[in-house]
């Protein structure tokens, strides 16, 4: 099953939601109109097309890749960068009372349909809401252990009724016992929705470590390397670095931010870090080549090695490997896919042109 159809609601339900402008489906799917070449949010107030002239996509970047333009009325690219109101309300409630287990009965009492919530979380977080809650509690427990709290305290504070149940769940999640967790650095992750599809951000106390599109083929290998080679214990959660990158990405996609300020931590070889440092120097709205980067490093014959290090960059967009193109000006390989690379370059070029126009 392809990515477009894997987590979409039934076709008839999407048609109904589109015709009734059901805002409960904001962020769940996008409506693309074949006759106009425009894609919209489900709740768009524009005149509704005939159902036979519509196709549905799970992600905004799929609409763009299929040749559709964003609707100027409902601005679906802006909407794709945030969770719908009903999800945001629930996430705020979870943050306020992290120990609550949130049964289906409680969700319904809050006006949240459990099946719809499950579908949204599977699409944007890669797991069900209840699985996310469990791993989030374990992540908080890991943080407590690192801060010197006793295993007994963090187990019961995390909502577990027995130490054995907590130990089993902890070891299953982190592949270590709670007693050994004091030697592992917590790497907290959060999934973000963006105009180009969902991304995952990971950060530890020193800075942002990873920012990738969830469908990047190398993502699993990158996370395993962080766990096994660099000793991280990966868990869902929030910290200041994750909140900062979420805010900065929103500004970047709005064309209002040309440089990221979030602190970075870059585990890797010395040569890879040198290449990544050169990536960070490529100006917003401009491009470079592997050969140029190799020359700046004093290794003009190392274009291929530069390309490999570029491909191992874990910080998409922040370390702008999308600004590296072929010597002939062609769009070379990009881990997030060439349609995304083209979109990012167009976004930056348009923002630069707008700034220059306003300067006159």
From TrEMBL:
Keywords assigned: Activator, Cytoplasm, DNA damage, DNA repair, Metal-binding, Methyltransferase, Transcription, Transcription regulation, Transferase, Zinc
GO molecular function (one): methylated-DNA-[protein]-cysteine S-methyltransferase activity
Pfam families for this protein: Ada_Zn_binding, DNA_binding_1, HTH_18, Methyltransf_1N
Superkingdom of origin organism: Bacteria
Gene Ontology biological process terms in this record: DNA alkylation repair; methylation
PANTHER family found in the cross-reference section: METHYLATED-DNA--PROTEIN-CYSTEINE METHYLTRANSFERASE
Enzyme kind, highest EC tier: transferase
Cofactors: Zn(2+)
Active site: 40, 321
Name of the protein: Methylated-DNA--protein-cysteine methyltransferase
GO cellular component, one term: cytoplasm
Keyword DNA repair attributed: yes
Additional remark text: This enzyme catalyzes only one turnover and therefore is not strictly catalytic. According to one definition, an enzyme is a biocatalyst that acts repeatedly and over many reaction cycles.
SUPFAM superfamilies assigned to the protein according to its UniProt record, in alphabetical order: Ada DNA repair protein, N-terminal domain (N-Ada 10), Homeodomain-like, Methylated DNA-protein cysteine methyltransferase domain, Methylated DNA-protein cysteine methyltransferase, C-terminal domain
Domain HTH araC/xylS-type: 111-184
Similarity comment: Belongs to the MGMT family.
Organism (species): Pseudomonas silesiensis
Cellular localisation: Cytoplasm
Record-linked NCBIfam families: ogt (TIGR00589)
Main location: cytoplasm
Binding-site residues for Zn(2+), renumbered to this chain: 40, 44, 71, 74
